[in-house]
Design a protein that fits this description.
Blueprint (H helix, E strand, L loop, with lengths): L10 H7 L3 E2 L2 E6 L3 E6 L3 E2 L9 E5 L7 H10 L1 H10 L4 H20 L13 H5 L15 H5 L6 H24 L2 H8 L7 H14 E4 L3 E4 L7 E2 L5 E5 L5 E5 L4 E2 L6 E2 L7 H8 L10 E5 L9 H8 L4 E7 L2 E5 L3 H5 L6 E7 L5 E7 L2 E2 L7 H5 L5 H24 L5 H4 L6 H29 L1
Parallel strand pairs: 8-12
Antiparallel strand pairs: 1-5, 2-3, 4-11, 5-10, 6-7, 9-10, 13-14, 14-15, 16-17, 17-18
InterPro entries: SET_dom, SET_dom_sf, SETD3_SETD6_MTase
Protein name: SET domain-containing protein
GO molecular function: protein-lysine N-methyltransferase activity
Length: 451
């Protein structure tokens, strides 16, 4: 399934038709960033500016949110049946289910050999997605050789897990949609049939272009998603009273004519998270942080019960600030407690006959405090012993990760392959340098805590 992309020169006509308002701004090629939005004239705000300068106004009807998916299901009964068949699992999956049929319809409209007779209800997104790039630079869309460049980084396991999840989701999507006659024909029995690659692309679009709106929640917003990121943004976005979204100039800002407008994609995102979600690392960001998975202790008979009760990421977050590295891990202390310390798990039956796993500390039910074990043990006589266990465990995990990372530095077969894009190579090398520094700093911190 492929569709003919629309030239960005056609975008103003589409925007005008959809009542997207551009105020003294235009789409432009931005060096090193692709398409961005720039000013047409010099603009400036100061402390006396009462009404913010508005660059863009996107109508409510164009905002692709969970609510928009619900509204579309009221218009297209076949889509409603697909939603019900798949189940409402998350906003991400709902929006991906919305995007896939529009991708098929866009492909059918531009495929000369397609004899597609079935159609879903068209929306502005049917055409808008043809403006979106198929080459999103996120690692899930890298080649196999390029993905290998991330071996040794915190993204190695994350990328493998994400790809496995996408494969599982796609297989479930194919299996369930095939049971519905309309969707079996529309999605799978035509020259424009879906594939795993299209599912991965829809996910990449969602993750790289989705914004968190105060009222609408996670949403994709046409035109606004073409504004690039900066750690020193000149603009911000907000929902207006009509439910649409405005792009507004930040107070006390000044932009010359032709200068790029930028927003922040998130001030607290780690380099790995930026690369994973957006396909780049902001070198001007001061955030030097990484998240490291904590492996379960193989000979711990309580490991499965701990993981079940904790029900969250079993990780340690390492943060480098002012020349030192600190760590946080709500799971590490629970991970290091044993039955002889007073930790116990019991399967209890409630009044309705349902069986539940419960966690006990010194005979008290503390199931609801699984994410705050520190408060349970802070007055315990063996608290220093517990803390030492945690530090030793984290020291081992950090040392293992650092050794793994260093074993993948400067591998000629990986870095010099002709099929590897320089942008992927540069991003992976930058991530390795950052994470190596964080891990080395964490080792120093943990060494000091052990002694």
């Amino acid at each position: 399934m492929n569709w003919e992309p629309l030239s960005i020169n056609s975008f103003p006509a589409w925007a005008l038709l959809q009542d997207v308002t551009f105020n003294n701004v235009a789409l432009s090629e931005v060096a090193g960033k692709g398409i961005g939005i720039t000013t047409s004239v010099e603009v400036e705000t100061n402390t006396d500016t009462v009404t913010p300068i508005k660059f863009l106004e996107i109508p409510y009807d164009l905002v692709l949110s969970s609510e928009a998916v619900d509204e579309y299901a009221k218009v297209d009964q076949n889509f409603k049946a697909l939603l019900e068949k798949m189940g409402r699992q998350s906003t991400r999956l709902d929006i991906m289910l919305y995007l896939l049929p529009h991708m098929v319809q866009a492909a059918a409209a531009t495929d000369a050999v397609s004899n597609h007779t079935r159609r879903c209800a068209s929306t502005p997104w049917t055409e808008y997605l043809r403006f979106l790039p198929s080459g999103v630079p996120v690692p899930t869309l890298w080649s196999e050789e390029e993905k290998h460049l991330l071996n040794g980084t915190s993204l190695e396991e994350s990328l493998q897990a994400k790809l496995a999840t996408l494969d599982k989701e796609f297989n479930e999507f194919r299996e369930k949609s095939s049971e519905l006659p309309f969707w079996n024909s529309f999605l799978w029995e035509s020259p424009t049939a879906c594939s795993l690659a299209h599912w991965v692309l829809a996910d990449a679009w969602y993750r790289s272009r989705c914004l968190e709106l105060p009222r609408s929640g996670a949403s994709m917003v046409p035109a606004l998603d073409m504004v690039n990121h900066s750690t020193n943004p000149s603009a911000y976005y907000e929902e207006n009273n009509a439910g649409g979204v405005d792009l507004l100039m930040r107070p006390t800002s000044k932009l010359s004519g032709g200068e790029e407008i930028s927003i922040s994609y998130g001030e607290a995102k780690s380099p790995a998270e930026m690369l994973f979600s957006y396909g780049f690392i902001d070198q001007s960001s001061s955030i030097r942080e990484m998240v490291l998975n904590l492996p379960m202790v193989e000979d711990d008979p309580l490991s499965m019960a701990k993981a079940h009760i904790f029900n969250g990421p079993r990780v340690v977050t390492l943060t480098a600030t002012d020349g030192s590295v600190t760590w946080t891990s709500p799971f590490a202390l629970l991970m290091c407690l044993n039955e002889e310390d007073g930790l116990e798990f019991r399967v209890l039956q409630d009044s309705e006959g349902n069986r539940q796993l419960r966690m006990f500390w010194l005979e008290a039910d503390v199931t609801d405090q699984a994410h705050d074990v520190q408060s349970l043990v802070q007055d315990h006589l063996l608290l220093p012993v517990f803390q030492l266990r945690v530090v030793v465990t984290l020291h081992d995990a950090v040392a293992t990760q650092l050794g793994h990372l260093e074993s993948h530095l400067d591998l000629p077969n990986e870095n010099n392959a002709s099929s590897v894009r320089s942008s992927c190579r540069d991003a992976s090398e930058l991530l390795k340098r950052i994470e190596r520094g964080v891990l080395a700093g964490a080792m120093e911190t943990l060494d000091n805590e052990v002694s």
